[in-house]
């Protein structure tokens, strides 16, 4: 949709910030031509001000103050509404230029505010911010409802969409017009007055609930830290011990070791700690986030969210939330999405049975006298990995230095996208935390400035868990060329002072994955902001695909070097890594798919029949969920789905995108030049990265591949039998 709905998307996600890829502010530096006097009223509030400084202007992260946020949001909304009113009340007949383009140009001041809002929400959260967030989220929801329910505005959009002018528009202009019209129609614009009022009321209630849900999870992540002592470190790698000591010291617990309640801390602890009792403690602490029966418990909030979502789509005539949500996605229907899940699920749980049998055999041989439990899975999987492949994850980790992997990503970007990354001198570009570093991105051939890349890699208090990518400005040309400000954000446990940060192989894949989102932003060649709006079961594809370059010989040979000796990773160890490529695939696929299937079940079941505290357990039992595994994201902390609507009924999209990923990877594998094949690489950038959402994703993929993707590629990729 238009600029104001780019802000809508940003707000919806910023209020909760769930999922992998964060919101896009799509900010710009010009006032709206249709309302040239509006920006004259902007105060000296830095959050509203146009970006200034080098590189076509950058956010003033060094001047942002929380006291400015509420007035900036209020003023930004007022400015945006004035712009919208000017468009809606234009006496001239509606045209693409005076309606659709004018809407694309609206909301820039508010978009800039959302950039800063996103930093406070994701990277620098505090109790003071959360108070403002709780107060403003329903007001923001009401603001967006006022726009989407503006009858005069919708009438003009509808007139353009149904006009003869459509035939003369470019393909991108036609798609932008359709996306704008569809966005109105799917969000209550066609309802009667009573329906519109209730629709808006539901949105406000949901906005409040999303904020409560995400803040409850963050509270449990901050409040539950497991401190251990020196006699409880058995099995833990030296790099992890040093990082845990530093984390404890930061929290005023000198002499202890902090296992923080995040995946990047929990995962290695469960993999290496020989203390089974402590493993269970850490496991329960992590997987019970939002489910502790206290003031931060999310079960009742889930029930309220599901009930309100169901009522809202019923107003629009849909049977359930999933039906509404998937209508404009690649899957089209919840049945199609579930069908993909069910093609893979039996093979995944069958593989889990094999994995558990292998682990139990080792436990029995060691005389452990246990049955494999969820807190044992990673620990004994590591033993199996070493026994089957003689592959020690901790040995691999010695060759995975965060800075070297970043250089590897730059190398891949240079080969595929023709990008150069040059560090920006400290102090030249404002940052919001000393950990944040900035690089200038240029075209290798012409030297032309493409944009900036911000990196915020380390975990800290007030930063949400996980990894994500976002933009502070996206590429457009409809009002003059706007260059890109892209950002990657992670939660790696920082190495001890003077020591490199070493990460696991899974974390290295995630690092490449998120950089894939950044390359998607940086390579864009579209005219309008709306062309950046994503199709959720497609937008993860590009980033998943970029993970494949981590295992290319060019990356392995140049950038995987030992953190002490500088020696390249031995060929024998690389061979073991590749031989073990599908190791533990049952675990990884099953924990993810359980979350994706539950997401679909939550949104295709009458919420009146759902008790969140038991629904997850009962449904997974019916599915035959192995008792040794839990959902990757259990319901009470499933932020992708209940902290906002970005991934709600769309978490299956990772698997949908994986089918595309596996199929596209085979296109490179079959090419003469392999993963650096020039011809396939050019098609990759042209049709799968630079085009964003200016073309239907299914059509774009066919232009790249010459056909639709096939699920067989996914099954081959994971070492699963192909269903007949």
Automatic annotation (TrEMBL):
It holds the Pfam family Peptidase_M3. This is M3 family peptidase. GO terms for cellular component: cytosol. One of its GO terms (biological process) is proteolysis. The lineage of its organism: Bacteria, Pseudomonadati, Pseudomonadota, Gammaproteobacteria, Alteromonadales. It comes from the Bacteria. One of its GO terms (molecular function) is metalloendopeptidase activity. The keyword 4Fe-4S does not apply. Coiled coil: none annotated.
